[in-house]
Amino acid sequence: MQLTNNNFITRQINQISEKKWPVVRRKIKKLIFLPFNLTLLLLALPFVVIIRLLSPFFVIRLHGLDIGRIGGLYSGDIYMSEKKCGHHQSGYFDRFYFTKSINHVNQQWKKMWKRNLNVFFFAEFAKSIERINKLFPGYEKYQIPNSDLNPSRLEFNSYMSGEDLTIYDKYNKRLECVLRVSQPNLSFTLVEGQLGDKYLQEIGIPAKNSFICFHNRDSSYLDMMNEDYDWRYHDFRDSKIENYLDAAKEMIERGNYAIRLGAVTKEKIKDTSSKLIDYANNGMRTDFLDIYLSAKCKFIICSDTGMSFPAEVFKRPLVYVNWVRIIGLPIYALKGLVIMKNIFLKKENRYMTFSENLNLRIGEGGENELTSTLELEIIENSPEEIRAVTIEMDERLNGTWQTTDEDEELQQRFWAFFGPDKFKSPNLRIGTEYLRRNKELIK
């Protein structure tokens, strides 16, 4: 009888699909930590009362930053830029706290942010204070604003319909601060700089040699770092490393080294050389070098991924490829070129126009069912497209790139989709060759 029961239990466990099992594990963890979390919430209540009583004298504000992901600290960087522009000054006592969405933290990244932000040491308690505070009216006063630079789709549609023409005001003022701060908010210490130069030589980059970095987003990193979560709604951002290699080899021919970034990858580069370095897989990857390479490269080629963030923080030029959602373009990039994946509408046997893309709902949670339901095919940028936009960046930086009146007109027509009040970095452009080939989509 006991054996029968065990077999029944085994069959029930086997019936739990791969999709549901992570959800079950998360629920179990919540139950295990429930007493601890309840205790923290009870202890947080008197602190919330004290915070509100002190508010006539100074306002204590909190905000969580996801230190588990490289790109999880965008709002921290924006906050620091705003502070340099005179915001968040007297009357505020601001503290950030770190959360983790995955089971990994880049320790060098964490160290550098802790040097520059006021970080609350007990994150779970700070989170409990915020939760309790939200139960009472006016809780927004005690939160550091989440500094987005792009409006939501709802706000964008409200602006474009004429319902609210002030939508861009707060975003543009915030962006103006970010663009005005020309120096990075983070920096390496003298010792770190010396160590970084030493490590560059150890991985094969001679002193004072120029190098570019490139990175393709795939699902392997998140899947490995937190297997309890279904990350498939990010898959539309993925791309194959092989499509980046022509661009990397072109830059090598132009006298640069080419370094492939990443921590966990689906595919290795098969044909490496002394100048084409698969740093993500050669056994020399470190948390420190992940950041140092991004900060010191001539420019980086990447997609819609958090790995672009260190280069953005350190004001490096960026070539963004395989972008999908126009509504979230990196308008803050001081020197940026963007090309996008084209989206093919199978039912209509045509490509989606750029104006239609503005209303594309994808990657907002759940699974990537949209592509199958609407019969969409999301097409990666080809090696030729990535090579062309990379050459454009290299020549723009070298001062040899030449544009035409037609190219400038195509740029103006594209950015007109966002309305007359849209503000962006003046040096952010859509890749010239990409726009030439897809000018029929500018409608």
Task: Describe, in plain words, how this protein is organized in 3D.
The protein is α/β, with parallel strands linked by helices and 443 residues long. The protein is built from 17 helices and twelve strands. The strands form three sheets. The protein has a seven-stranded parallel beta sheet, with helices on both faces. Strands 10-9-11 form a three-stranded antiparallel beta sheet. Helix 8 packs across helix 11 and helix 10 runs parallel beside helix 15. The longest helix has 34 residues.
Number of helices: 17
Largest beta sheet: what is the strand line-up? Answer: 5-4-3-6-7-8-12
Low-confidence stretches: 1-19
Helix content: 40-55%
Topology:
Blueprint: H1 2-14, H2 21-54, E1 59-66, H3 74-84, E2 92-99, H4 107-116, H5 123-133, H6 153-160, H7 167-180, H8 190-202, E3 211-214, H9 220-225, H10 245-253, E4 257-260, E5 276-277, H11 287-296, E6 300-302, H12 309-313, E7 318-323, E8 336-340, E9 342-345, E10 350-351, H13 354-357, H14 370-373, E11 376-379, H15 383-398, H16 405-415, E12 428-430, H17 432-437
Parallel strand pairs: 1-2, 3-4, 3-6, 4-5, 6-7, 7-8, 8-12
Antiparallel strand pairs: 9-10, 9-11
